[in-house]
Design a protein that fits this description.
Layout: E1 5-8, H1 13-17, H2 21-28, E2 29-30, E3 39-44, E4 50-54, E5 61-62, E6 78-84, E7 89-93, E8 96-100, E9 105-108, E10 115-119, E11 128-134, E12 142-144, E13 150-154, E14 163-169, E15 180-186, E16 192-193, E17 198-199, E18 203-210, E19 217-223, E20 226-232, E21 236-240, E22 245-250, E23 255-262, E24 271-272
Parallel strand pairs: 1-3
Antiparallel strand pairs: 2-21, 3-4, 4-11, 5-10, 6-9, 6-11, 7-8, 7-10, 9-12, 13-14, 14-15, 15-23, 16-22, 17-24, 18-21, 18-23, 19-20, 19-22
Length: 282
C-alpha cells in the first residue's frame, strides 16, 4: 500500500501570534497517527524531521522511501527512533528481528535498507511511533527495553507534576547522530508536564501524547510572554520551533513520548524559565 507523506511547514514568532486555534492545530498538530493497518508519516520543515506511526494488524507494514527524501531507501541518510505504545510486536531490520514489548524502544541506524513492523496478535496490536532525523554517520541499531532506560523521578505532588522520565535513546545507552528520545509517565493525580517550562534554541522538540483517553491535554507553546494553547487528544503529536516553550496540562494523568534533534545530545541543555515568566505579568 502506497502512503503519501504529509508535508508540514512552520512559522515565525509573529506568524504564530496571529494564528487562530484552528490554524495552530493545522500547522503544528499531527492527528493522523495509529490508523489500524496503516503506516502514516509527516515531514516537518523543522530540522527536516519525519514523524510517523505504524499500526500493523494482520500483515506487516514496510517503511518505504519518498521523493522528499531523495534516497534509495528511507534510512539511506537517516536515523530513526521507535517506541511501541501498544501490544507486543516486532521490528525486522535487514532480516534481523527485534521483539518489541510495550514501552520498548529501538534505535535504527543510518544505512539499514529494510524496515518492517508487525503485531504479534491482531486482537492486541502493536502501535509503533517513530521519529527520524538526517544522520551524518552510521551507528549500530539497538533495542532498549523499558527497564533498560535511564529512569528519573521528577516533580512534586504539591505542584501536580510528579512524573517518571524514561530516557531510552540517549548518550550512555545508544550512540546517535542527533536523536534523543524517551517517554514520560505522570503519576495518578498529577496533570502538569515540564513545568516550569523551558526552551532550547539548539534543538527542536516533538511531543506525542498517549494513555490520555478519555481525558485531553492542553499543550502550551509559543513565546513565554505570549503562550498559545492547543487541545490534544490521545495519540496526537505536536512539534515546536526551538524558540517555543513546550508544556502541557491534562484533565487527568497521561503519558507522552518526547523526541529532540538538533545541535547536541545533552538532555539537560535547556534554557529554564520560571512560572512568573509566562504571560505578560501584572
Amino acid at each position: 500500500m502506497s502512503v503519501q507523506m504529509d508535508y508540514r511547514e512552520s512559522t515565525d514568532r509573529a506568524g504564530m501570534s496571529r494564528m487562530t486555534v484552528r490554524e495552530l492545530r493545522d500547522t503544528f498538530v499531527i492527528d493522523s497517527l495509529f490508523r489500524p493497518g496503516e503506516l502514516r508519516l509527516s515531514y516537518l520543515e523543522i530540522e527536516r524531521a519525519v514523524v510517523g506511526s505504524a499500526a500493523p494488524t494482520t500483515a506487516a507494514l514496510t517503511l518505504p522511501t519518498y521523493k522528499e527524501l531523495a534516497s534509495r531507501f528511507f534510512c539511506e541518510r537517516r536515523e530513526v527512533g521507535v517506541i511501541n505504545i501498544g501490544g507486543p510486536g516486532s521490528i525486522t531490520l535487514d532480516g534481523q528481528r527485534f521483539e518489541m514489548a510495550r514501552h520498548d524502544s529501538l534505535y535504527i541506524g543510518r544505512g539499514v535498507e529494510s524496515v518492517s513492523f508487525e503485531s504479534n496478535a491482531a486482537t492486541d496490536p502493536a502501535k509503533f511511533y517513530f521519529v527520524s532525523y538526517p544522520a551524518h554517520a552510521s551507528y549500530p541499531s539497538k533495542h532498549v527495553r523499558r527497564d533498560e532506560a535511564r529512569t528519573i523521578q521528577a516533580g512534586e505532588a504539591g505542584t501536580a507534576n510528579r512524573r517518571v522520565i524514561r530516557q531510552a535513546i540517549r548518550p550512555g545507552i545508544v550512540e546517535t547522530c542527533q536523536l534523543v528520545m524517551g517517554f514520560t509517565e505522570l503519576e495518578d493525580g498529577n496533570v502538569w508536564n515540564t513545568m516550569p517550562p523551558h526552551t532550547h534554541r539548539r534543538r527542536s522538540e516533538i511531543y506525542m501524547y498517549f494513555d490520555a483517553s478519555p481525558g485531553r491535554v492542553m499543550h502550551l507553546m509559543g513565546e513565554p510572554a505570549e503562550p498559545r494553547a492547543v487541545f490534544m487528544d490521545d495519540g496526537e503529536a505536536v512539534f515546536s520551533p526551538s524558540w517555543s516553550i513546550h508544556s502541557g496540562v491534562g484533565t487527568a494523568s497521561y503519558s507522552f513520548v518526547w523526541c529532540m534533534g538538533g545541535e547536541n545530545l545533552e538532555f539537560d541543555d535547556m534554557d529554564m524559565l520560571a512560572v512568573h515568566d509566562l504571560g505578560p505579568g501584572a
